[in-house]
Amino acid sequence: MRRKNRYFFLGVLALGTLVGVGAYTQQQKPLDPFEEAMRQRQMYLETFGVLPGELFVEEGKELFFRKGPSGKTLEECDFGKGKGVLEGVYAILPKYFPDSKRVEDLETRVYTCMQTVQGYKPSEIKREEVRAITTYIASFSSKAKIQVVPKHPAELAMYNLGRELWYTRAGARDMSCAVCHDQYAGQRVRLSPVRSPKQGLGNEWPAYRFEEDKLYTMQDRIDFCYESIAIPKPEYYSDVHIALTVYMLAEATKAGHSFEELPFFTR
Amino acid sequence: MRKKVGLILALVLLLGLGLTQMSPFRARLEAALHAGGREFAQVMLSQDKGQALCSQYRDKLPPDLIPGFLAEQKALIQYPASGKLMGDWKNGEKVFTDPKRGNCYACHAGVASEVAHGTMGPSLTNYGQRGTSEAVVRYTYEKIYNAWAFVPCSLMYRGGVHRLFTPEETADLVAFLLDPESPINRR
Hints:
The complex is a heterodimer of chains A (267) and B (187).
Chain A: H1 2-25, H2 33-48, H3 52-64, E1 95-97, E2 102-104, H4 106-116, H5 127-138, H6 153-167, H7 177-181, E3 188-189, E4 192-193, E5 207-209, E6 214-216, H8 218-228, H9 239-254, E7 264-266
Parallel strand pairs in A: 5-7
Antiparallel strand pairs in A: 1-2, 3-4, 5-6
Chain B: H1 2-20, H2 24-35, H3 38-45, H4 49-56, H5 66-74, H6 89-97, H7 134-145, H8 167-178
Helix pairs in contact in B: 2-3, 6-8, 7-8
């Protein structure tokens, strides 16, 4: 029932968005896309009294407390601050977990615990469910200060790997992350402003994107970048996403950035 | 004497081993790329020489490598069989705008009425004021076909080299920028 409501709601929103986007690309002066997102956000609040991201949080909460084949819920998972602690965990991830012997971001940690704690097989784990649970847990770190400081040797290795990927130019468009997000940070690709990690890049996900009418996690957003530069997107929960996330958020940490309201609302 | 020769042989052998073996970091990187999936790894691991150098030097090549780099990139430029470097501006506009081909509005301003343009590259509005001398036409053609033949590791991708557009379509792009009739040059 809740799911149905959500789709109806999103449908109505999509229609509104199309009209909105049409109107704003036809104006003489390009609108600042973030101002436009804030305007849309206000409109959604006034019309529906709720933001789309909150519906994903609700869905994630239900899934978080759902018992898996082992009879356990995700309350039994350690997300970085001990079993059952959700407050502020998103702000310290990715980090090394001794039980899985792996540096994990939140999405990967959810995926791991659904297997090791809850007893799901990988094939039974739906991406949309991980997305919703991630959004629910991240909402406990809304506006938190980012605190990704690689210390464990595995975290340092992941940072170095992320930095290498960041500078790797490949594919038919000769791109790397760095060439736009460092050298040309502050400029626009079409109407979208491009930020560097030092300017806080990565501090807004998970977010609902009204232009796409979808919720994006950090991994989804990295995939969107790769696809737009003609590189096939890497597999979910792979070290590629985790390494890039460590690199970006460690740089954002050095510059003293905080997360936006999570889940964020953006274009 | 024999001992000395043996020692030198052993050293040479060790050196050879060291050179042929992948560094641990490189091995770790390749493992991560493979973990990203077959298609992802395939693209990331098939960098050409230019891409590999730009990655290695973080887009700032040492001065002694630049002349060789520019020459190699220049050699990759192909020209239309007809020899005409200025084609049809109407088709050029299509290639310029198409996100799968030129995608030029991602970074450049073009026709003045298009406001949804990026700002990473210089504005191309009124590019035609340079005139249509042979030198201008040739530079424009070569720059579009392979930007790295002029600025090593620039953001501008090598659309011709990667066949995002053909030599004939490159000439059409040149016309879109230089033809006085093109909307890029009309007030």
